[in-house]
Design goal:
Helix content is 24%, strand content 20%. It has three helices and five strands; from the N terminus they run αβββααββ. A five-stranded antiparallel beta sheet has the order 1-2-3-5-4, covered by helices on one side. InterPro entries: Histidine_triad_CS (IPR019808), Histidine_triad_HIT (IPR001310), HIT-like (IPR011146), HIT-like_sf (IPR036265). This is HIT domain-containing protein. It comes from Paracoccus acridae.
């Protein structure tokens, strides 16, 4: 694993209530809040409440209940933020940065939901 879980990371501190957040939604196993440095008109982070470092850690080790709850909260956020494809909305991008090559900054799994404008190509085309 690229990172060990660090209980002092900013998301762990948000989950403990030590640092405030602009909460969008919450469930039994996950929390969604606005990014403090938004990269799009809609930029929400969804994090599990469990101690998971990355997407692959969460996918491999979270319980079925945690995974379902997390995904359903993501769907609620997309709907409430008006970026899901229902009702003629135009879509969004979901990004999980993982490890050094993925430029992960916080060693707690988090999914970025970005929308409200065209996101452009995901990566520049090579060659």
């Amino acid at each position: 694993m690229a990172f060990d879980y660090d209980d002092t990371n900013i998301f762990a501190r948000i989950l403990r209530g030590e640092i405030p957040c602009d909460k969008v939604a919450e469930s039994d196993h996950a929390l969604a809040f606005r990014d403090i440095r938004p990269q799009a008109p809609v930029h929400v982070l969804v994090i599990p409440k469990g101690r998971y470092v990355s997407f692959d850690d969460f996918a491999a080790n979270a319980s079925d209940a945690e995974i379902v709850d997390f995904m359903r909260l993501c769907a609620r956020v997309c709907a409430s933020e008006g970026v899901g494809l229902d009702d003629g909305n135009q879509g969004f991008r979901a990004i999980a940065n993982t490890g050094p090559h993925g430029v992960q900054e916080v060693p707690h799994y988090h999914l970025h939901i970005l929308g409200g404008r065209v996101m452009g190509p995901m990566l520049p085309r090579q060659g």
